[in-house]
Amino acid sequence: MTRRAGFAALIGEPNAGKSTLLNRMVGAKVSIVTHKVQTTRTRIRGVAIEGDAQIVFVDTPGLFQPRRRLDRAMVAAAWSGAADADVIVLLVEAHRGITEGVERILEKLGELGKHRTVALAINKIDRVKSEVLLGLTKQLNDRFAFAQTFMISAEKGYGVDDLRHWLAEHMPEGPWLYPEDQIADLPLRMIAAETTREKLTLRLHQELPYQLTVETENWEERKDGSARVDQVIYVVRDGHKGIVLGHRGETVKAVGRAAREDLEAFLGRRVHLFLQVKVRPGWLDEAERYGEMGLDFKDGA
Fold first, then answer.
1. Angle CA(150)–CA(71)–CA(40) in degrees, nearest 5?
2. pTM, two decimal places
């Protein structure tokens, strides 16, 4: 039996469905999925087994025009993840077609993709008619020599098995990189922080989530098998603190409850989650905060 193992990078615009596809491929929720853009800040790796192959997915932040230091660090992380991968999968939304963002990605792939195997996955195919799909497929393949094109719906699962099987065949021969039962290589502290940030992103006003971050300050394993998790939500303004707390603390309580339920399902045991909200005006310019998110502070310069 010849084993295979390697890295597959999922790239695309914000909201293209990368996190949904990763979670579908892995069969567990390891990446934040929300209806808001730019929710994935770190290169989360999910591990999938397909036959004799182990595919390690790098779920990169969405590629967009960066404006702030955090944006620039996220985009640098995305391209770094793609450059390090054995196979790159570009996700394009069927109903949006070739946007300015996709144009920029295609240009960059032209530089990067000469020595890489790059597949195209046209996502959300249930939103358009077949003739539109065929036209978009031709346009994109005229622009770049994709090794293979897949028509998928990450949300509904259409075409995902075919993509995973193809990726398995294109992983290099070699021993597996992770134990068979491991689905993500993020530390539990970061998974917990990302889980809480997802719940905040879903509940709060559109602009606020990108100006807050969550850090797991303490993780204590208890004798009864449960875990105590203490987290801090950092915001940049006093007004934001009030929004996160909500009337009589109702918002932060609801966020904590939803995050705790997700963590308990993920870990398969009880979790005692405690949240604090602190104002830290300059966190967007603190190297330490970037390190906590798995980003390189220098990439944002």
1. 50
2. 0.59
